[in-house]
Design goal:
By secondary structure, the chain is mainly beta. The chain has a domain of 246 residues: Beta-galactosidase, Chain A, domain 5 (Distorted Sandwich), CATH 2.70.98.10. The protein is 8% helix and 35% strand. The longest helix has 19 residues.
Length: 376
């Protein structure tokens, strides 16, 4: 009788243990593969779902969107975001896949700017400039996570004075909300105790075909922008704002991304393809479409809305097949589109452009909406 009771107890324990294991996500991710501790912060995988069946998975390491499952015209669900299927690869591979970028998205010239007469020196981690907050920007640091409900995740990052050289103790938050109309509403906020600069964005790599083994040349892109900011051969903005009309930079009429990308045009050579900031016509109106991307393969449409003045469109020019992501797929050149809503690159050194300065007593507020739908 005692043996039978003992074995029954063991069986019950094993049953409970198995049922408590986190289930794989719709995108096939195992939450256990994201569990670790970094700088004393518990890291995990957080899943957002709505009643339409859309699923978004996010890790609080770097505030990264790991997967986005949306329906195509065939009714099947497709993962339209590049990324990894475990935390080890995020920690040990230098990428910005899906990241919440800070303190300053994009580039600052020579990693320097002057604030109230003092020169601030930042890391020079990209062609002599500071890119995406430096060598250890927020995409490589943990956020504290709080899952509010099944559709909402709040991430908090406390960045100390001097973090990567930036002044001020900054508390930043990223709020992800998955809405019932299949949109990811991302709201950024930040406060500081000392004058500083802030420019946050999301760096998701989108491939709306759901097959990142293929380039995005056939995807149709619209950008609501009549002007863009050209760059030199080190990807730094020159200070000019030029019209897109009559150039390969013109997406005011929707066209395939690959239509002009290999033209003999100086800016495409400097950017190794598209890697530029467009000056949005929306003037901060979050209800106006800033960008629209469509895959002819799946019919999946991505619309981008923002209160920011610019959007950086990058076509994955530095992907080269050396990075293997989810499902064992090696990501080839130009296998994704990045649409980073932002203040213009190097705004701290260009006072004539919209200011990225944040003062004590102020609250930085930025919003980006990625809305998905299907066209037959």
């Amino acid at each position: 009788m005692k043996k039978r009771t003992l074995w029954a107890g063991i069986a019950a324990f094993l049953t409970v243990s198995c049922t408590q294991q986190p289930a794989a996500t719709l995108s096939g991710l195992n939450p256990q593969d994201f569990q670790t501790t970094i700088d004393g912060v518990d890291i995990g995988l957080f899943t957002l779902k709505n009643s339409k069946g859309m699923e978004v998975c996010i890790t609080n390491f770097g505030g990264r969107i790991v997967s986005i499952m949306v329906p195509g015209r065939d009714g099947r669900m497709h993962d339209v975001a590049l990324g990894f299927d475990n935390i080890h690869d995020y920690m040990h591979t230098e990428t910005d896949f899906g990241a919440s970028i800070g303190r300053y998205a994009n580039r600052i010239n020579q990693g320097r700017f002057v604030m109230d007469g003092d020169t601030v020196q930042l890391p020079r981690n990209n062609f002599g400039h500071c890119l995406h907050g430096g060598t250890k920007g927020w995409q490589y640091q943990p956020y504290i996570a709080r899952q509010v409900d099944s559709t909402t995740l709040e991430l908090t990052r406390v960045s100390p004075d001097g973090d990567q050289g930036f002044p001020g103790n900054v508390t930043a938050k990223v709020l992800f909300k998955l809405t019932e109309d299949n949109a990811i509403d991302i709201r950024y906020s930040a406060t500081t105790d000392r004058k500083t600069v802030i420019n946050m964005t999301n760096h998701s790599y989108f491939n709306l075909s759901g097959n990142p083994a293929q380039p995005v040349y056939n995807d149709i892109l619209y950008l609501n922008a009549d002007y863009y900011t050209p760059v030199d051969s080190t990807f730094m903005t020159t200070g000019e704002i030029l019209p897109v009309a009559g150039t390969p930079m013109d997406f005011t009429t929707p066209k395939p991304i690959g239509q002009d990308i290999n033209q003999d045009f100086a800016q495409l050579k400097n950017g190794k393809g598209y890697d530029h900031n467009w000056v949005l016509n929306t003037k901060g109106n979050v209800r106006q479409v800033a960008a629209r991307l469509k895959s002819p393969d799946t019919g999946i449409v991505l619309e981008v809305y923002t209160n920011e003045p610019g959007v950086q469109m990058y076509t994955g020019n530095f992907l080269d097949g050396s990075i293997t992501g989810k499902q064992g797929i090696a990501y080839p050149e130009r296998s994704a589109v990045v649409l980073e809503t932002q203040h213009y690159p190097d705004s701290p050194n260009k006072p004539e452009w919209p200011s990225a300065v944040l003062e004590p007593g102020q609250t930085y507020a930025s919003e980006c909406i990625f809305k998905f739908s299907v066209e037959q």
